[in-house]
Amino acid sequence: MALAVTDNRRLPLGRRFTNEELGQPVELHDGAGIAAELYRPKNGSVRETEHYERIRGTFTDLTGRILGLRSYPATPDGQGPAMIVEPTVIDGHGERPIEFSGAGVQEALVLSTLMPTEPGRVVVLDEPAVNLEPTMQRRLISKLRGPGQFLVITHSADLVPVETATDLRRIVRLTPTPHGSQVQRADLGALGAKESLGWLRPSSCARGPLR
């Protein structure tokens, strides 16, 4: 089983990568290496390019925009060959670096890169709603119901599925006590999802796998 974990903080996107960095998997927990992680599948085998297109599809589903990727040789600096790699956003206003599109779009890029998963992979998303507007959060819920296993840690009600009572039974509430955090699950009985929403409000929630 493979485990991918994100931080609830994001570093500025890296742009300059050596050939060695571009040829191997990148640590994605803080988002800084996303450009290198996109470069490899875009320019790889047929299977890898298919994976890249799934990432682009997820990005469009979350943001309504098209993901691009520009790359060109970096100016020599005496440290070996390197490339400049820049994720871009393509929409009705043209193409521009993703940094100029807001923190929510950058967060959507990180999530889109992580979410097309392989069998046996578990993705842990720590507070993904911090930079996502409510509309993107609700779109994210539908993507989390796809292939793969996801654990979502969140304070956002927009990231908690409440269509059915079964949805709420998948939610764990962590309550602070003098002896440490206590894990609680809802005992809904005959209540429907809407009548049970108050159970979520007192503290943070960790949502388990949606499948």
Topology:
Blueprint: E1 2-5, E2 16-18, H1 19-22, H2 34-42, H3 46-63, E3 66-73, E4 82-91, E5 94-97, H4 103-114, E6 121-126, H5 134-144, E7 149-154, H6 165-169, E8 171-177, E9 180-185, E10 205-207
Parallel strand pairs: 1-6, 6-7
Antiparallel strand pairs: 2-4, 3-4, 4-5, 7-10, 8-9, 8-10
Helix pairs in contact: 2-3, 3-4, 3-5
Can you describe this structure?
This protein is α+β, with helices and mostly antiparallel strands and 211 residues long. It has one domain (2-159): Rossmann fold. 28% of the residues lie in helices and 27% in strands. The chain has six helices and ten strands. The protein has helices spanning 19-22, 34-42, 46-63, 103-114, 134-144, 165-169; strands at 2-5, 16-18, 66-73, 82-91, 94-97, 121-126, 149-154, 171-177, 180-185, 205-207. The strands form two sheets. A six-stranded mixed beta sheet has the order 1-6-7-10-8-9. Strands 2, 3, 4 and 5 form a four-stranded antiparallel beta sheet that branches. A hairpin with a 2-residue loop joins strand 4 and strand 5. The chain is elongated and about 65 Å long.
